[in-house]
Amino acid sequence: MEVYAGCVTDRGNYREKNQDRAVCHVRQNGHSVLAAACVCDGIGSFAHSETAAEMVTKGITRWFEGVKDLFPEVMDADMLREDLEMTIRELNELVYAYRNEQDPQMGCTMSVMLLTNADYQLFHVGDSRICRVNGGLWPMTRDEVSMAEVNGRVKPLLANFIGKSDTLWVNKLSGTVEENDRFLLGSDGLFKKLTYEDVEEETGKIRSGRQAQKACERLLKRVMDRGEKDNISCILICAQSVTED
Question: Furthest-apart CA pair in the chain: how many Å?
Fold first, then answer.
């Protein structure tokens, strides 16, 4: 299996700053594939949530750099999953401590995908999303929101986010990558105006990392052209089968 990935984030047409952060890292060594992707969406009602999103995505990057040369000879897939979950919980504790000591106006969502060869593990907090593209745009995560009355109006509010508490509730899902699978990770600004037809048209024939990157950029432009007002982040991961001679 070969993996091609693209990653893009933008403040969009209307927001003064980008509170989203997105990172995607891939290492292929012979027949071994290791990839980690993370989207964080800063909570818009908090003034400095980009700080929380930055802390988490930088932490995921540091983790990947520390383990990428250890898989699979030193650390197997189970060890990596356990270590990544521990890292995520430690990052939440860091954000929570910073929020309580320095700046209460911060917090973010988090959607992480880890690929270890043909297996995946998801870690999810909040209302960013991970979708599988396979005859449709199928959500693999569930938005963690609750309905509440605010200023006389009923609106959805995040029920779970990074930094809310020093103890983190993480939703997890594991499974197997199927032949020619595609996965789309994004903040909610990506998905509100995106269709399966958009994704299929842009991602149906990805054969390189450069093509995956360009597909992400075109998907972002489509959403912006339709008037999306939020920050927008998009990560595309394409798994292609390899035929051995």
Answer: 66
